[in-house]
Amino acid sequence: MPAGLALLLSSACSDAWDDHYVTQPSTVAGSPTITEYIAGESNLSEFSKMLTISGYDTLLSKPQTYTVWAPVNATLAGIDLRDTARVRNIVSNHVTRFSYPTSNLVSKVIYMQAGKFITFSRTGGGFSFGGFDLLPAQSNIALANGIVHQISGFVPYMDNIWEYILKAQGLDSLRAFLNSQSEYVFDAKNSVEIGTNEFGQAVYDSVITFSNPILDQIGRLHLEDSVYTALLPTNKAWSDAYNKVKSNYKTLLADGGPARQRYYSQRALVSNLIFRNAFPDPGSLDSLVSTTGNTFKSPGYLFTNSTAVNLSNGIAYRTDSLRYKAAESWQQPIILEAENSSYGRSYNYANLFVRSSLGSAFDGQVSDSKYLLVEPTTVSNTTMSTVTFPIPNTLSGKYNIYCVMVPNSIVEGQAAKPYRVKFYLTYLNNNGTPVTDAPIDASNKLMVPGRVGAIFTSTAASVSKMFVTQYEFPFCNILEEGDPSSKITVKLRVENATRITETVQYNRSMRIDYIILEPVQ
Fold this sequence. Notes:
With 521 residues, the chain is of the alpha+beta class. It is built from 10 helices and 31 strands.
């Protein structure tokens, strides 16, 4: 990225300012500009030099209205003016658009040119900015293009979580993955040239458009309008966790092979690192919910031996060990609600109806209070009703597969009768070859397609969690946003097995609550 760019990571800095400020400009025609005033004040000579180094001398000579909180010389004595990046951060952290006098001030949170929020408030008999007192005789200086307040110290530029990740030592692996998903584009149309640097190159008050799909999912860590708790793995923690996770993301060559496996594994590592709000003592919490929705009970163990770092938009905890349990994070049960048709559910010789359990004797026992009713449309014993459920997002690993049935007695007045069903599994074998509708035998083992599978009988009067089979999938099958449902390689077919002559004892309709795949750890 070009030197001297102010990385205001937004679509347009003017829009961001307008969102935060409604203060009307207060200027005095014929007065010096802000730059001229500061250059003429002997006790601001260091800050004046910093304006020139950063290019803000040009910006603060323009007719737009600004407020500057100018630190006096003594407070800047330790600043190395050769560190131009630090100089620019300090300057931009003391400049904002529009005018902010102390009149009628109680407390305001000001959005600065640096992209940070700093409190400007009345304190006792005076006023403060970022905790530093305004000098009473040198405050509210009305100028041609804004206001200057001289202050008794400079407000240090504090990195946010994203900036910390980009700079901190020992976070190279995390940084490399997140940065690989980032895109920065210089918006020349909305950027303003504010001067030149020591090499004669143009310096811009820049608008940089920034996008990162991973941050969109886990938290916009580069912005200051939300506060987070972040668990940041060191290189050691990252390597150890990656080696543990990667076996669950083996990927077919046709789907990207080792490169895709690496991406999926790394994405899994970051998916539960961020939590909303700043928690200085996370070990005292009963539970903690990640920004991706996973709940960690008694979460203190996640932060064991970590080191806290206070940042401008939250608290980061550096850790040498990611202590997540697989079942809490990347390898959770897969639940497919039977009434969910969004993945391309198919059926034969049946009509399908979504029914509610609310108000029934089984209210509270049925997932999401809904189930799928499968009514046969024929009376033939050779054309049994079936419904097939595509199951997305299976990992490479072992699962116990179940089908949960709701008894027909959920309908008032119906006698409790069990279901008789057959199960068929579609999957990829170890060679990556599709196996379609493999029947399940009486020992719950997969059979060769085409053979006659076993009949399984549900309980008659209660919700029945029927064990189908255990299978170790050799490849993961991740369905990304926008992928067609035809990409799903795992499917479970449930077939009614009650013959016409058996309807006195068994039910020919099927009521299916959900399919669940439970990882075998």
